[in-house]
Amino acid sequence: MALCYNADEAASGTFHVCNARGRRIKREGKFVMLDAFANLVGTISGWMYSYILIIMLLAVGLYFTFRGKLVQLRLLPESIRVVGEKPKGENSVSAFQALMVSTASRVGTGNIVGVATAIAAGGYGAVFWMWLIAIIGGASAFVESTLAQIYKKKDPNGGSYGGPSYYIEAALHSRTLGVIFAVILIATYAGGFNMLASFNLISSFTSYSFYEAAGTVALFGKDISMVSLIGGAILAILVGICIFGGGKRIVKVTGVMVPVMGVIYILMAVLVMVMNITAIPGVLAKIFVEAFDFQAIFGGFMGSCVMQGIKRGLYSNEAGIGSAPNAAAAADVSHPVKQGLVQMLSVFIDTILVCTATAMMTLSTGIDIKSGLEGAPLVQASLATIFGGFGPAFITFALLLFAFTTLLGNLYYCEGCMNYIAGHKVGKTGTTIFNIAAILLVFVGALLKVGLAWDIADVLMGFMAIINLPVIVILGGTAMKALKDYTDQRAAGKDPEFKAASIGLKEKTDFWN
Length: 513
Hints:
Layout: E1 2-4, H1 7-12, E2 16-18, H2 32-67, H3 71-74, H4 76-83, H5 95-106, H6 113-122, H7 125-150, E3 153-154, E4 160-161, H8 164-172, H9 175-203, H10 209-213, E5 216-219, E6 222-225, H11 226-243, H12 247-275, H13 280-291, H14 294-299, H15 305-317, H16 324-328, H17 336-363, H18 376-387, H19 390-422, H20 428-445, H21 450-474, H22 476-491
Antiparallel strand pairs: 1-2, 3-4, 5-6
Helix pairs in contact: 2-7, 2-21, 4-17, 5-12, 5-17, 5-19, 6-15, 6-18, 7-13, 7-15, 7-17, 7-22, 8-9, 9-11, 9-19, 9-20, 9-21, 11-19, 11-20, 12-17, 12-19, 17-18, 18-19
């Protein structure tokens, strides 16, 4: 199969898909291969979330919610307490630093663009399903991060590293599955998520007059916005400057930027809600009413509030897909459950605080969510009704910080998975090649179309969840035993310390023997 055309068609940019004999398979169409790819990815995404992931996410989350006796709510105050604990080693990663790295990845452009996209497509009810997937997913997040701590490995400098690939191999004795998961994670974070973060940031510029004024340039036979080209190039360069500083630098940068970014954004949302306080009761009522409009839900499930809320909620908080455990394993704590609780807290910060801030900030202004706007432009338009030109500018600034920290946090995850695949720490040459490829993908993401950008991220993320969720169910008993050991020690007034033998763990561990 190949592309074929005559001279006139080539001049107009019209191509045809032909077989080996030159016969046209498709009579007309511009860049049909790319369109076919986009359609294929969209179909896979729809099938995944309609028939597999919606069941898996809810079933696994509910399973651990009941088995852990509502651990995500019962021990929420405890999770806040342990965040402040300092590591024993001077150069070790603290529980708070590990939280910031995972939150840097979770709290990203999805908290603004993803929420607005879900609302525009699924209506007010999508917000409720985001809340639900976060609350239920908190239990899954607790289990996967606790497992990452139990099976973490010791690095030569005395620190630690790990993640799903490591607990898959240690507990299930399958390096092959561990490698497959690592490859998919790298593709998801360096590819799908980082391209989407780049796209989401650049999409915020469409609200400004200079976007159209800058014009377009023909690239690969398509008209590409000059703003997308220049903005994508600048963002890629900034990311490159930072990532060539190494993983430790990523921890330091995100540790400073994430709290500032989140607090300012939430304060702005609170201000908007106070200014529109009379509209809040109506917004909340509409969220719950539309969430249970079953006729509308089953009449068009793919675009329903349930589907949109779950997809965008999962993209935002990442609970159960196996990403945060990579950061959780780096923390220096006395008991694995401590980091499980900390990562559980990250899910609440992401969805219950930041995503809710976006939803209420947008909906309380009374903007018509079916006006045709979606993503960043919808949030910008809602704020413009109150603050004029400052509103869109603030969202662009927030997206810049969200996107930047997301890009850095994502690449931190990839570093550990590359080391796992190689079986040793990847050398300078290999890391440099990967970093250059990652930087190029950030640039490419700025040039994508909205549907393809979201679908690629959704499909790759879905494959991670399909592997990780069954694994944590199989290993869930170990995490639950660790939880009981922790709560028993706390009930006895102790600062919990973990020993593998105390829960009858047969697998050899680097830290807990």
